[in-house]
């Protein structure tokens, strides 16, 4: 008897024994309350919709005899807690039943490869396929230490779906190393296309075992981001259930939250794993039908999003060298300063707990002699800091405490034991506009403050080289609006923020450069006006009055009338179509609320209309970043350099410390020429350094 059958039979026998005990106990008990009355009482309690649905399932299962009350509960009053416990029983019974059905209903074209003969037969079939679906089963999600325990493949032309178990508890004659040695001719073959869901993970896992999977043709996870960025879940099982009418249980639903796939009986594992590539292929076919109606987006998917994945894998695997000695010294100094600041603040605020909003708010109100809306640092406390030294000190304490607890003391703990480096995860569609986000392992590079960047060093013999897109969003604005003032500024090489600040503040252009208050204020104002920020928020951001903010916005659009016309056009387009296009119709941002038909003001509709312009600018800037990142990846492969990170509008590389100025010019050309916004010239500011937090300008480095 198969191992799974033995386990399932044992579960069935246990359930039968319990039901018998329940029946005997029922004969002796005469409940004072009928079960119908008990259910009415339980269902009348406060329940979420999800809990109500669960309890209704329990009630139906009890009435159908699928489950029974536990013998030790029969003498007690039926309760919500007991019903919830019975729900867990029901889930387990249904799970066992589902596993039985999976094995009993295994499709004839699902094949388990457990010996050398079937392995070679599978390889012979896959070699004849122009494109296949691929997936890995592993011991966990850590791509640097977990290992592959099995692989699945779909051969679409032959209509066969394989699972190759290699490192299960239930052994076969094929090890992971042996299987990969035979399969490398398939996996490394550029001419055999590969379709995967979340390809980045599987490419990582193959690299973990020394195999470089080439020929990626499609990633159904990233493709779904282009088909519907508002999709609540990009998980394969959820998408299959929703779009393919293929009800698919998740791993935890089938095997339990803490289950190990290597321990799953092979007959069950084969059905589960083979189905993964089967539905991945079906999802690919579903997506292709929809992309056929949007050829410009499909071209973008194939030419940008797919090759980008290889660049991201390399970037993640390179990782970051963290200066542990500096972290220790700097952290100790920070802790002493924080302790001193805390002691001063506690004394000045009459012994309160600084981390208790309930204590902090009344203490601050007593300090300033009036009521506060909240203790929000940015909105409420920052405007008061210039008049109240204690509040200024409190903001310093809060900022430094976040820096210490989130970065300085935390980052060294996140260094991977196996690689000795810190690794982030870069999500190419981490936002709905297609911008990158980074995270994983607790490392969010997008908000690393400058002080924390001092912990990041280049490897020995190397330096970090970074370049940004100067005023990326405003250059995109100039391109889309063709506003003469913006076009002229960029054509003559003038800084648009400094130029506008010079006019608004009536100061010479030279006195409004980098670092000046005027330029900083103008940058905030320009971006706020672009993205539809209201006068109240702008007043708060710039530290000016509401009437002054109204005047600023009015003056901005008087100076740039084509910007106003373009923004209004975006709102009308979104309201008519429910979406806006990004540059070259390469991707959409869907804004269904913009299409709502309402009378008067509607908050959701208004927000969606404002998002239209933001989406076009941000999404098109994201395309520029991604296209350039692919070109830089190619440059790195030619030069022996490494992609290091992408953060906001900046890309960073690791290069040899003896890099020449001529080689820096190669990097500069890629940054400037890979994706221009029409005739608006790109500009990049290049910095080089041994430490990310202490970079020098190109001129300073080669001085």
Structural overview:
The protein is of the alpha+beta class. The chain folds into 5 domains: 3-104, no CATH class; 110-293, Nucleotidyltransferase, domain 5 (2-Layer Sandwich), CATH 3.30.420; 322-420, Taq DNA Polymerase, Chain T, domain 4; 437-471 and 621-701, Alpha-Beta Plaits (2-Layer Sandwich); 473-579 and 593-600, Orthogonal Bundle (DNA polymerase, domain 1). It contains 27 helices and 17 strands. It has a 6-stranded mixed beta sheet, sandwiched between helices. A hairpin with a 6-residue loop joins strand 16 (686-689) and strand 17. Helix 4 (80-104) packs across helix 11 (266-291) and helix 18 packs across helix 19. The longest helix has 37 residues, at 603-639. It is globular and about 85 Å long. The relative contact order is 0.07. The model has no long low-confidence stretch (mean pLDDT 91).
What topology emerges from the helices and strands here?
Layout: H1 3-28, H2 35-43, H3 49-64, H4 80-104, E1 110-112, H5 116-127, E2 131-138, E3 148-155, E4 160-165, H6 176-187, E5 193-196, H7 199-208, E6 216-219, H8 220-227, H9 236-243, H10 251-255, H11 266-291, H12 295-318, E7 321-322, H13 324-348, H14 357-368, H15 377-385, H16 389-408, E8 425-427, E9 437-439, H17 450-453, E10 456-457, E11 462-468, H18 472-481, H19 484-491, H20 496-504, H21 517-530, H22 535-542, H23 546-559, H24 561-577, E12 579-581, E13 588-590, H25 603-639, E14 642-647, E15 650-656, H26 661-673, E16 686-689, E17 696-697, H27 698-701
Parallel strand pairs: 1-4, 2-5, 5-6
Antiparallel strand pairs: 2-3, 3-4, 7-10, 8-9, 11-15, 11-16, 12-13, 14-15, 16-17
Helix pairs in contact: 1-4, 3-4, 4-11, 5-6, 7-12, 8-11, 9-11, 12-25, 13-16, 15-16, 18-19, 18-24, 18-25, 20-21, 22-23, 23-24, 24-25, 25-26
């Amino acid at each position: 008897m198969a191992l799974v059958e033995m386990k399932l039979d044992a579960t069935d026998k246990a359930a039968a024994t319990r039901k018998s005990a329940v029946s005997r106990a029922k004969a002796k008990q005469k409940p004072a309350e009928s079960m119908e009355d008990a259910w009415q009482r339980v269902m009348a309690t406060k329940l979420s919709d999800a809990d109500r649905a669960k309890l209704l399932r329990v009630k139906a299962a009890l009435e159908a005899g699928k489950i029974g009350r536990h013998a030790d509960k029969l003498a007690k009053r039926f309760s919500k807690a007991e019903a919830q416990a019975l729900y867990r029983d029901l889930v387990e019974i249904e799970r066992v039943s589902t596993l039985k059905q999976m094995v009993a209903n295994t499709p004839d074209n699902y094949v388990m490869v457990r010996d050398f003969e079937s392995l070679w037969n599978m390889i012979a079939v896959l070699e004849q396929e122009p494109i296949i679906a691929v997936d890995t089963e592993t011991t966990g999600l850590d791509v640097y230490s977990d290992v592959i325990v099995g692989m699945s493949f779909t051969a679409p032309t032959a209509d066969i779906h394989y699972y190759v178990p290699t490192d299960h508890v239930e052994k076969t004659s094929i090890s992971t190393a042996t299987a990969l040695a035979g399969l490398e001719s398939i996996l490394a073959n550029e001419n055999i296309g590969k379709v995967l869901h979340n390809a980045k993970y599987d490419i990582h896992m193959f690299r973990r075992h020394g195999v470089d999977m080439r020929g990626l043709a499609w990633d159904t996870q990233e493709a779904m981001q282009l088909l519907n960025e508002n999709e609540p879940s990009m998980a394969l099982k959820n998408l299959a259930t929703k779009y393919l009418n293929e009800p698919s249980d998740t791993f935890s639903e089938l095997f339990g939250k803490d289950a190990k796939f290597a321990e799953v009986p092979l007959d069950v594992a084969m059905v589960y794993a083979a189905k993964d590539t089967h539905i991945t292929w079906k999802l690919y076919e579903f997506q292709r039908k929809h992309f056929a109606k949007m050829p410009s987006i499909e071209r973008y998917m194939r030419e940008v999003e797919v090759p980008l994945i290889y660049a991201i894998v390399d970037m993640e695997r390179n990782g970051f060298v963290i200066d542990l000695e500096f972290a220790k010294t700097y952290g100790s100094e920070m802790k002493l300063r924080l302790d001193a600041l805390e002691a001063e603040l506690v004394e000045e605020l009459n012994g309160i707990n600084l981390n208790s909003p309930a204590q902090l708010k009344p203490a601050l109100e007593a300090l300033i002699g009036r009521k506060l809306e909240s203790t929000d640092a940015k909105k409420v406390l920052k405007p008061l800091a210039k008049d109240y030294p204690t509040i200024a000190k409190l903001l310093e304490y809060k900022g430094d405490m976040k820096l210490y607890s989130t970065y300085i003391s935390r980052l060294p703990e996140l260094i991977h034991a196996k690689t000795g480096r810190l690794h982030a995860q870069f999500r190419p569609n981490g936002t709905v506009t297609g911008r990158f986000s980074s995270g994983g392992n607790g490392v969010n590079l997008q908000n690393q403050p400058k002080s924390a960047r001092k912990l990041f060093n280049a490897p020995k013999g190397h330096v970090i080289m970074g370049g940004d897109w100067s005023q990326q969003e405003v250059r995109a604005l100039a391109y889309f609006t063709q506003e003469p003032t913006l076009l002229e500024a960029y054509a003559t090489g003038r800084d648009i923020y400094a130029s506008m600040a010079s006019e608004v503040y009536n100061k010479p252009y030279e006195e409004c450069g980098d670092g000046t208050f005027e330029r900083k204020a103008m940058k905030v104002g320009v971006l706020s006006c672009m993205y539809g920020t209201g006068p109240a928020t702008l007043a708060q951001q710039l530290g000016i009055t509401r009437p002054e903010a109204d005047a600023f916005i009015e003056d901005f659009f008087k100076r740039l009338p084509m910007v106003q016309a373009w923004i209004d056009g975006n709102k009308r387009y979104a309201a008519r179509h429910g979406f806006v296009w990004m540059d070259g119709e390469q991707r959409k941002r869907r804004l269904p609320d913009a299409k709502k038909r309402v009378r008067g003001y509607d908050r959701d509709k208004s927000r969606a209309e404002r998002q239209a312009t933001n989406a076009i600018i941000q999404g098109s800037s994201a395309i520029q970043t991604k296209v350039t990142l692919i070109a830089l990846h190619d440059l790195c492969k030619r030069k022996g350099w490494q992609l290091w990170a992408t953060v906001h509008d900046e890309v960073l590389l690791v290069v040899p410390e003896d890099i020449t100025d001529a080689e820096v010019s190669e990097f500069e050309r890629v940054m400037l020429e890979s994706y221009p916004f029409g005739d608006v010239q790109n500009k990049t500011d290049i910095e080089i350094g041994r430490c990310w937090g202490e970079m020098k300008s190109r001129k300073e480095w080669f001085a």
